[in-house]
Specification:
The chain has 371 residues and is an alpha/beta fold. It contains 14 helices and 18 strands.
Length: 371
Amino acid sequence: MKKFLRGGFTTGASAAAGVKAALIYFSTGEVVDEVEVTALDGTPLRIPVASLEKIDGDKIRVEVVKNSGDDPDITNGVSIFTTVKKIPATEIIFRAGLGVGKITKAGLQLPIGEPAINPGPRQLIKNVAAEFGVVGLEVEISIPAGVELAKKTLNPILGVEGGLSIIGTTGVLRPMSEDAFKRSLVPQIEVAIAAGYDVLIFVPGKIGETIAKKIGLPDTAIIQTSNFIGYMLEAAAERGISKIILCGHIGKLIKVAAGIFHTHNRIADARLETLAAYSAAEGLPANEVQKILDAATTENAAQIISDNHLERVYEKIAARASFRAERYLFGKAEVGTILADYAGKILGVDDAAKKISKILGCEFDYGKIAE
């Protein structure tokens, strides 16, 4: 039987619900335990109100607990506080409270210095205010847990500092699809371009990021791809990026050498087979090739390569990963590759990666541990 996933509401809709509860109180003195907010796509949302209190004489603070449904969202169950004050103005002034970030880099939807309250949530709040005929408001949004939660997001990379973003295109939160997750990675490229970079470093995870920073590659040019290397390569090429370094664990990037551009292990693997094939081509005896095929991980296989003094194979694999990536892009960008192990030791670098690194002002000894 097919399981239907439950939807929920966004942080933006949570804040809009807080504004509505506050405006009801301003209008009638009533403390409500639920409000209806119309999402930007017309969907009616019934949103519970956890608490409402009057503070500083003329402000109302409302708590709404975020409900993400079945979406694996880090803010599920987190309290969103919206503090509302009527002001003698013809606009709504948005402020970032505790746990809500501010924009520090160009390339996002908002100017530098603005609270990270995205256009969708702002429009939702404006729509709520219009229901009451209110034009002048000061709205501060706080997520106390957001200071720590933001460290688990791409916000620090994107240039949102101090907390989370208040997000949501419509206000309705539907369980995230793979496509939606892929699209959420692309703004990193926009931020890097806005900072003046047309050369990027793609890292599929923390290992690649750590190494890239250790060897002096610029932080703003480092782009997290997760498993979606092919998708991100295309996104970069479409935006005019001319050169890309792939930097990461050999267990991920060896798949690219085999022409695999979605690197999740449930989609495709062939890590050991690829390593065995290249090692055999470099002269590894058949019995040792079989040991690689029987190894549990690429880390175990790397020990076999080390025992046979065949480390040159990594440069061949790096060059092949770059070749396959360039072919995937039909030559729209030049690609270089840096391969590493779990300890942060750089195993192999191709000539293209060395050349592109120099363009970024970085020359390094890739035989050392990136501690």
